[in-house]
Structures are given as structure tokens and as C-alpha cells.
Amino acid sequence: DGEFRDGKMTLSGRRSSSRGSTTLNRIVWQKMEGDRIRQRWEQSSDDGRNWTLLFEGIYSRKKG
């Protein structure tokens, strides 16, 4: 599921493990100044009460 709101594109979804537990994943892209984009991928095992950062990247347009 996803939406674009307040300058951020957010996608989220649940994933079940083979052990029966469920994790919630959330990836957010946000435009930064200087023609850059920040991406954050977070995961929650308690239905979104607490989040763990799995990845953060900053992308910039290739000059060329």
C-alpha cells in the first residue's frame, strides 16, 4: 500500500515469516534540497509502535 503526502512517498506492507510472526515494512522517499532524494527503509515487529532502521540512502542526480 502507498501514498504521496506532505512531500513524501510512503509504501508499506506486512510480511509473514515461516515461524508465524509478522513484520511491517515501511519505505519512505523524500525530496531534499539540491536535487537529492532520501530513502529510508524501516521495519516494525510490534505493529508500528517501534521502528528499526534497516537502510538509509541519499541519491543525487548524476552530473554528466
Question: Can you walk me through this structure?
Answer:
The model has no long low-confidence stretch (mean pLDDT 94). A 5-stranded antiparallel sheet has the order 1-2-3-4-5, with no helix packed on it. Helices cover 0% and strands 66% of the residues. It is elongated and about 50 Å long. It is an all-beta fold and 64 residues long.
Number of strands: 5
**First-last Cα distance:** 35 Å
Give the SSE string.
EEEEE
Task: Let me know the largest β-sheet.
Answer: 5 strands, antiparallel
Question: Residue-averaged pLDDT, rounded?
Answer: 94
* CA-atom Rg in angstroms: 14 Å
**Widest sheet: strand ordering:** 1-2-3-4-5
Q: What shape does the CA trace take?
A: elongated
Give the oligomeric state. single chain
Estimated share of beta-strand residues: over 45%
* Helical content (DSSP H or I, runs of 4+): under 10%
Please identify the structural class as seen in this structure.
mainly beta
Number of helices: 0
Quick take:
The protein is mainly beta and 64 residues long.
List the helices and strands and how they pair.
Blueprint: E1 2-5, E2 8-16, E3 22-32, E4 36-44, E5 52-60
Antiparallel strand pairs: 1-2, 2-3, 3-4, 4-5
